[in-house]
What we know:
Blueprint (H helix, E strand, L loop, with lengths): L2 E2 H8 L2 E2 L7 E2 L1 E3 L9 E4 L12 H7 L3 E4 L10 E4 L3 H15 L4 E6 L4 H12 L5 E3 L9 H8 L6 E5 L7 H9 L3 E4 L7 H4 L2 H8 L11 E5 L3 H9 L5 E6 L6 E9 L2 E8 L2 E7 L5 H15 L4 H9 L9 E5 L2 E6 L5 H12 L7 E5 L9 H13 L5 E5 L3 H10 L7 E4 L2 H4 L11 E5 L7 H8 L7
Parallel strand pairs: 4-5, 5-6, 6-7, 8-10, 8-11, 9-10, 11-12, 12-13, 13-14, 18-22, 19-20, 19-22, 20-21
Antiparallel strand pairs: 1-3, 2-7, 14-15, 15-16, 17-18
Amino acid sequence: xxxxxxxxxxxxxxxxxxxxxxxxxxxxxxxxxxxxxxxxxxxxxxxxxxxxxxxxxxxxxxxxxxxxxxxxxxxxxxxxxxxxxxxxxxxxxxxxxxxxxxxxxxxxxxxxxxxxxxxxxxxxxxxxxxxxxxxxxxxxxxxxxxxxxxxxxxxxxxxxxxxxxxxxxxxxxxxxxxxxxxxxxxxxxxxxxxxxxxxxxxxxxxxxxxxxxxxxxxxxxxxxxxxxxxxxxxxxxxxxxxxxxxxxxxxxxxxxxxxxxxxxxxxxxxxxxxxxxxxxxxxxxxxxxxxxxxxxxxxxxxxxxxxxxxxxxxxxxxxxxxxxxxxxxxxxxxxxxxxxxxxxxxxxxxxxxxxxxxxxxxxxxxxxxxxxxxxxxxxxxxxxxxxxxxxxxxxxxxxxxxxxxxxxxxxxxxxxxxxxxxxxxxxxxxxxxxxxxxxxxxxxxxxxxxxxxxxxxxxxxxx
Length: 463
């Protein structure tokens, strides 16, 4: 980006302090630690910290402008722009910036799980033909997505943007900022049930992506998901639809699937054609995510062989089913987030490892499930018991529910340990042995990454 302070003032309608308005802002940040010369800092007054307290630090680091919500003392030569709401001003500026990037088309990716991996796969495919920008990490919400808009450059032809939500209206808001022409929905699961109340409501929220699409107005949908099939039957006026999945009625489907501990291979069939795909991502569920990316490539005229190369190049994002070999054991780090669907898929991956290796699962709480939380955690316990685990370590508020579910499904009580939080659960790391396959998974708030880091550091007595 390269926007003058004068233009920013015009767009956000703010009250500026004295200074040089001709200077060009080259980046927008909300974390004072990421400020560099030419940055504009956006000050948020949060629950735990107030960005207004870091303005002087930002000025020393070279920030030339800051969006603020109140009168602040002068900060060197940095121009402060006072607005009523910095959050709204950030979104307003991102919306304006998107309109300046007229030659960039946007593909939005949403779903209850698999968004980030699908985003990576789509970007890998499209980059075989186009200059592609993709969202970094999990910048998929009402703050993160606008920040990604500012990172897009004029040379990009396609932007693949992840879109998350926890309530109705949020994806619609993200679309108003980013203006996608294509959309992908991975699945309609139970994540955010606490806020939305039902899968029907979750479906409606996810399908906000299909509203007000720019040309070519196309949705790439999981045809194996009955919720998505139902929505299409209800009608998506003016929107073209392509279905992907395993069922024969899908436009693009996978057959002859082989999965293992190093990934999967399968044949993709479409329009009477077929090609073999090798995928270096763990889990049979990633076949479906790859099909979504394959469909995007076909729609955008990427040659099938190039699509295959793009898929093979993807290794996924950190903390999402990432395998590591450490001190003779295999660690599967899936600690970034969790819901009932993704928990089941991760446990299925653990189950693919040979019976001779002891399987260990550290499972943290799944958050935002509302009143169904205890039963959903008991369900996870039952699924875990079906994977012939040698040790189940349940962590968090619902650890006892996981334990009860596992026992109900026939798992021996002596093979289950419960802990109130991830810090206490570190005691169980010492029980790991060479040859173990260890899955660590839970919602972000469960802080299961603490366990991952100790294992990676070799923090065991017996390994």
